[in-house]
Amino acid sequence: MPDAWLAAVPGVREHEPLSPHSWYGIGGRARYFVALEDDAGLAELIGRLAAERVPYLVIGAATNTLFAAEELPGLTIKLATSRLTIDGSQVTVSAGYLMPKLAADTARKGRTGLEFGAGVPGMVGGSVVGNAGAFGREVKDGLLSTEVIDPQGHVHTLSAAECHFAYRESSLKSDKPGWVVRSATFATGEDDPSRIRARIKEVQGHRRQTQPIEKRSLGSTFKNPPGDAAGRLIDACGLKGRRIGGAQISEKHANFIVNLGGASADDVLALMAEMRNRVFERFGIELEPEVRVIGRTAGQ
């Protein structure tokens, strides 16, 4: 077995259930799984995985990831790193840092510019890859550079320009399969911590009013098409509240699928297919998934 050596890697567990590692509470198993609080050996590990053609998947909080396979092959790596350094106006943070925590921790230090992170329920690494954003600001607006590992295990520093950011998109997402974010450096401004915290509360309040945060979801199911909103289109098709199994299109925001309890990946994928089909039939618009589906394509 080409991946048998993984069983001897410190901290690796076999046949690990993935639902506890999913924000959504859905998932099969990982053939091999390791949670890393220290990424010092990550580059070497990825280099060996790639050299021996062992598939690997790096996850954080899995806030927009649907695990749809019965068992993922190879190694699933969960980054739980928590480094944060502030050097003047520059904030450098590890990939495993939660964005809302980053917003709060930098606010305490009087650094402004990352308040939007309070509305991004994910980790820094995935937020960089997907150019995550909330309420008018995105990662690209403040990112200076990101430290990444390529599949050969080499470490690179990419400037924001080299990431080729677009709406919920980057070169790391579309053109660099197998590349892993290790850290990110942001430019910030200076302000009174109380004013920064007030802005964070505004972001949190708006999110509570407009999104079903009281239930498990994966955030926005589909990207907004140019000049329109996916939620408006889905709502116009009369799909709010539509339920399949334990999954339901939220009655608060039609672009969210919530887990009412016991939802399966099949339930979620069936709702996604219905949402896409109905919107295309009525408006001729092909919705593009924002949710990351692992193990199957979103159309299956």
Number of helices: 7
CATH architecture of the largest domain: 2-Layer Sandwich
User: Which CATH class of the largest domain applies here?
Assistant: Alpha Beta
Q: Determine the structural class based on helices, strands and strand pairing.
A: alpha+beta
Sheet with the most strands, sense and barrel status = 5 strands, antiparallel
The tally of strands reads 19
What fraction of residues sit in β-strands?
25-35%
**Structurally, how many domains make up the residues?**
3
Sum up the overall morphology in one term: globular
CATH topology heading of the largest domain:
Uridine Diphospho-n-acetylenolpyruvylglucosamine Reductase, domain 3
The SSE order reads EEHEEEEEHEHEEEEHEEHEHEEEHE
Q: Point out poorly predicted stretches.
A: none
What is the topology, as strand order, of the major beta sheet? 6-7-13-11-12
What is the rounded distance between the termini?
A: 29 Å
| Helix percentage range | 10-25%
| CA gyration radius, whole angstroms | 19 Å
Question: Could you report the average pLDDT, rounded to the nearest whole number?
Answer: 95
